[in-house]
Amino acid sequence: MGALLLLASTSLHGLGMYLVHDRFDRHWPEYRHQRMRRQLFFSGIVLLILTTHLAEVLLWGCTLAVVGAIPSFRDAYYFAAVTYTTLGYSADLLPKSWRILAPMIAMSGFFAFGWTTGVLVNVVGRMHQRDTPPGA
Questions:
Q1: From the DSSP assignment, how many helices (H) and strands (E) are in the chain?
Q2: CA distance 53 to 79
Q3: 58-67: long-range contacts (C-beta < 8 A, 24 or more apart)?
Q4: Cα-based distances in Å from 135 to 15, 59, 126, 132
Q5: What is the pLDDT of residues 78-116, one digit of tens each?
Q6: How far is residue 69's CA from residue 26's CA, in Å, rounded to a whole number?
Q7: In terms of CB atoms within 10 Å, which end of the chain has fewer, N or C?
Q8: CA angle (90 as vertex; 47, 71 as ends), nearest 5
Q9: What distance in Å separates the CA atoms of residue 125 and residue 68, rounded to the nearest whole number?
Q10: What is the pLDDT of residue 91?
Q11: Is 85 exposed, middle or buried (0-12, 13-18, 19+ CB in 10 A)?
Q12: Assign residue 31 a region: left if phi > 0, alpha if psi is -120 to 50, beta otherwise?
């Protein structure tokens, strides 16, 4: 089950990162004088990235609550969020039969944050590339 959730989480992240690139390609304000519009647009991209990460944490948190590994949804979501960000939380909170999920949640977050970093570097690079006049 952990491997399937890891694949589902990674697929969800792929969808989110695809949307980030798609939105940038379709809607990036081309004119340099549109600074405020560009800042708001970039903030929207960051919000889309945040939403993607929160959805992945929600996937893990819901699973932990549904299988009864952590009875309260609120506690399950918090556990998933702290583990996903690789800050770590006491894996002893999980019953022995579910403890393997903690490192899988952490791996999911580790992969996702690495991927997100690459996407952000790419988008910022493309922003600057589009602003550089030809021949400069």
A1: 4, 0
A2: 14
A3: 59/5, 59/8, 59/9, 59/12, 60/5, 60/9, 60/84, 60/101, 60/105, 60/108, 63/1, 63/5, 63/101, 64/94, 64/98, 64/101, 67/1, 67/98
A4: 35, 48, 16, 8
A5: 999 999 998 876 767 888 889 889 999 999 999 999 999
A6: 43
A7: C
A8: 75
A9: 45
A10: 66
A11: middle
A12: beta
Q: Do residues 60 and 5 touch, judged by C-beta distance below 8 A?
A: yes
End-to-end CA distance of the chain: give it in Å, rounded: 53
Both tokens assigned to 98: 């579910």
Q: What is the pTM of this model?
A: 0.88
What percentage of the chain reaches a pLDDT higher than 90?
A: 66
CA torsion, points 34, 36, 38, 39, in degrees to nearest 10? Answer: 160
Name the nearest CA neighbour of 105 among 126, 79, 133: 79
The structure tokens listed for 25 are 């390609």
- Rounded distance between C-alpha atoms, residue 94 and residue 69, angstroms: 6
Amino acid in the structure at residue 16: G
Dihedral, CA atoms, 79, 82, 86, 87, nearest 10 degrees?
Answer: -120
